[in-house]
Write a structure and sequence with these properties.
Largest sheet: 7 strands, mixed
CATH class of the largest domain: Alpha Beta
Number of helices: 13
Number of strands: 27
Strand content: 15-25%
CATH topology of the largest domain: Rossmann fold
Shape: elongated
Radius of gyration: 31 Å
Number of domains: 3
Helix content: 25-40%
Distance between the termini: 37 Å
Length: 562
C-alpha cells in the first residue's frame, strides 16, 4: 500500500509544471500564504496569441491555488501608450478568460509610491541624479567583456540628490537633461546591475494622470514596485527577463517591502509562420496589406476573434502547448486542430455553395417547393433538425460535376447517380455548356422513392453532394483565408520585409447559402458542409449583406503528439 501511495505521489509531482512545483514549495515553506498573480501588459499595441499564454498561465495558477489574478496596465511610458490599446486589451483579456473580468489596476496609480521609493533609495545612498547624456551613459556602461566606469556624478551627496530629484519632479529640467540612477555596481558581470536608470524626465501628457508628472519611472524600477504594492506573490514573466531578476530582487529588497514578490521565468511560445512583431504588423496596416489589427489573417487576439476562433479553443491550445523553460515553436496546425475539435460537435452544419453551378431536376414538378428535415449536426443528434427548402432548380458546387471524371470519382457525371444530401437520388442525363465549353447547367432526373428518411433500401450510391434550392437561396460573400506568410520562403526577407502569400485572401462574391444563414448574426459560427468552418464577419457584415470568414478548412492530417 505504501509503495502504491508513493507511486501516486510521484505521478502527481510529474504532472505539475515547474512553476507549480515552485509555488507549492513556497507555500509549504510559508514564504507566502496567499497566491496572487497578474498579467501586466503595456498599453502600446494589441495583444497577440503569445500574450494569451501569459494570461491563461497566470489566471490558471491563481485558480489552482485559490488565489487572485489581476490585470494591470503597465502604463509608465506615455510616449507610446493610447486609450485605444487599454480598451482593446481589456476586451481581449475578458474574452480569453471566458468572460471573467479580473480586477483592473494601472501602474500609473502607484506613481506616488514609486516616487517615495526613489526618495528612500536616495536617502539610503542607493540612488543618485546623473547628468550624463544617453550616449555617455552607454559609453560608461562597458560591454559584456569589459566592466563599466563610474559616472562623475555618482558621489553626489544625499542632500544634493534630493534637491535635484525634487527639481526633476517640479519640471525644472528638459527632457533627457538628468536621470535618476541606482547606485549598485558598475563592474557587475550583469550589465543590468550597472547603475540602471530609475527615472527619466519626459514632459508629456499621460492618459491616466494627465500633466501631474513630468518624470516617469523605468520599467525595471516600476515593475517590481507595482507587484509589491499589489501583493503579487509570483511575478510570472518570459525568459528575456531572467537577466533582469537580480535587479527586480534588488529593488524590492532595497525599498524594504515586507513580503517581496518572487519572479519566475517561462519560455515564450512561438508559432510557426506567423507575424507577431508590432512594427511588422504596423507596417502591414499602414501599407494596406491587411485591413487593420483585426485582419483575420493576423494572430492578434482581436483578429483571431474576428476570424471566428473561440476562447475555449485557444485555452485548449495553450494546454497542449504546455509550459517550459526552453523556447520552442508550435505548429499553427495545432491551433487549427483545437478550433476544429471545439466546433465539430457544437455548431450547426449548413449547406452553402461557394462556386455554384445550376442543377435542374427535369422530372420534378415546376413551381413546387417542399421542406425537408435536415439534421443540424449529424454527429450530435441532440441538436435536432431544421426544415430546408427543396425545389426543381438547385445550386451545387462546380467541382461536384465532371464531364469526363477520373477513376474513383463518385460525384456527378453523365449517367451517374448520386444522393442529394438529406433529399433524393438524382441521375445526370445531360448538361449545357457556353461558347467556351464551360458547363453552365446540369440536367438530372430524380427518383421520388429514394427520399431520405423513407427507409428506401432498393439500391445504393457511392456519392453524396450538398445543394441549395435556387428559388429560396440567399446570397453571401465568403472570404477564404490562408496563411499571410509564404510558408515556402519563410516569414522574413533579408531586408526585414515580410514574405506575403499572394493567395492569403480569396474573396468569393455571390455564393449561395440556405435561407436560414441570411438570419445569422455577426460572430455566429457554422460548419459549411464538406467545406470548412465559417463565422459571420463582425466588421463588414451589414443588413442584407452577409460576409462569412473561413475559420479553418474541414480536415487536416495534424494530430497532437504526432
Amino acid at each position: 500500500m505504501a509503495t502504491e501511495k508513493r507511486e501516486e505521489e510521484k505521478e502527481e509531482v510529474i504532472s505539475k509544471n515547474f512553476i507549480e512545483q515552485e509555488i507549492e514549495k513556497d507555500l509549504a515553506e510559508g514564504v507566502y500564504t496567499n497566491i496572487m498573480t497578474r498579467f501586466p501588459p503595456e498599453p502600446n499595441g494589441y495583444l497577440h496569441i503569445g500574450h494569451a499564454k501569459s494570461i491563461l498561465l497566470n489566471q490558471g495558477l491563481a485558480k489552482k491555488y485559490n488565489g487572485t489574478f489581476n490585470l494591470r496596465f503597465d502604463d509608465t511610458n506615455p510616449t507610446k501608450e493610447k486609450e485605444e490599446f487599454v480598451n482593446s486589451i481589456l476586451e481581449d483579456v475578458v474574452w480569453i478568460c471566458g468572460g471573467e473580468k479580473p480586477p483592473v489596476y494601472f501602474a500609473s496609480n502607484y506613481f506616488d509610491q514609486m516616487y517615495e521609493c526613489a526618495v528612500k533609495l536616495i536617502k539610503k545612498g542607493k540612488a543618485y541624479v546623473c547628468d550624463l547624456t544617453p550616449d555617455e551613459i552607454r559609453e560608461y556602461r562597458g560591454t559584456l567583456t569589459e566592466p563599466g566606469k563610474n559616472s562623475p556624478y555618482r558621489d553626489r551627496s544625499v542632500e544634493e540628490n534630493l534637491e535635484l530629484f525634487t527639481k526633476m519632479k517640479n519640471g525644472e529640467f528638459k527632457d533627457g537633461e538628468k536621470v535618476l540612477r541606482a547606485k549598485i555596481d558598475m563592474s557587475s558581470p550583469n550589465i543590468n546591475m550597472r547603475d540602471p536608470i530609475l527615472y527619466r524626465v519626459a514632459h508629456i501628457m499621460h492618459h491616466n494622470t494627465g500633466d501631474k508628472w513630468c518624470i516617469y519611472p523605468m520599467y525595471d524600477f516600476a515593475h517590481p514596485i507595482e507587484d509589491a504594492v499589489e501583493g503579487i506573490s509570483h511575478s510570472i514573466c518570459t525568459l528575456e527577463f531572467e537577466d533582469h531578476r537580480p535587479l527586480y530582487d534588488w529593488v524590492v529588497r532595497e525599498c524594504e517591502f515586507e513580503v517581496p514578490p518572487r519572479q519566475i521565468e517561462f519560455a515564450k511560445m512561438y508559432l510557426t509562420n506567423v507575424i507577431t512583431g508590432k512594427r511588422y504588423i504596423k507596417k502591414l496596416v499602414e501599407d494596406g496589406v491587411v485591413d487593420g489589427w483585426d485582419d483575420p489573417r493576423l494572430v492578434s487576439i482581436t483578429a483571431l476573434r474576428r476570424r471566428g476562433f473561440t476562447a475555449s479553443s485557444i485555452r485548449k491550445f495553450m494546454e497542449l502547448a504546455g509550459v517550459s523553460k526552453s523556447n520552442s515553436s508550435v505548429d499553427y496546425a495545432m491551433l487549427e486542430y483545437c478550433i476544429r475539435e471545439d466546433l465539430k460537435m457544437t455548431q450547426p452544419r449548413m449547406m452553402a455553395i461557394l462556386d455554384p453551378i445550376k442543377l435542374v431536376i427535369t422530372n420534378y414538378p415546376e413551381g413546387r417547393v417542399e421542406y425537408l428535415d435536415v439534421p443540424n449536426n449529424q454527429e450530435n443528434p441532440e441538436m435536432g433538425t431544421r426544415k430546408v427548402p427543396f425545389a426543381r432548380e438547385l445550386y451545387i458546387e462546380r467541382d461536384d460535376f465532371m464531364i469526363e471524371p477520373p477513376r474513383k470519382y463518385f460525384r456527378l457525371f453523365p449517367g451517374n447517380e448520386v444522393r442529394l444530401m438529406s433529399a433524393y437520388f438524382v441521375t445526370c442525363q445531360d448538361y449545357v455548356t457556353d461558347e467556351n465549353g464551360k458547363v453552365t447547367e446540369i440536367h438530372c432526373t430524380y427518383d421520388p422513392e429514394t427520399k431520405s428518411g423513407s427507409g428506401f433500401t432498393g439500391r445504393k450510391v457511392k456519392g453524396t453532394i450538398h445543394w441549395v434550392a435556387a428559388p429560396t437561396a440567399a446570397t453571401a460573400e465568403v472570404r477564404l483565408y490562408e496563411n499571410l506568410v509564404d510558408e515556402e520562403k519563410g516569414v522574413y526577407n533579408e531586408d526585414g520585409s515580410v514574405n506575403i502569400n499572394p493567395d492569403s485572401l480569396k474573396v468569393l462574391e455571390n455564393c449561395y447559402v440556405e435561407p436560414a444563414l441570411a438570419e445569422a448574426k455577426p460572430g455566429d459560427r457554422f460548419q459549411f458542409m464538406r467545406t470548412g468552418y465559417f463565422c459571420v464577419d463582425t466588421k463588414d457584415t451589414t443588413e442584407g449583406h452577409q460576409v462569412f470568414n473561413r475559420i479553418v478548412s474541414m480536415k487536416s492530417s495534424y494530430r497532437p503528439g504526432k
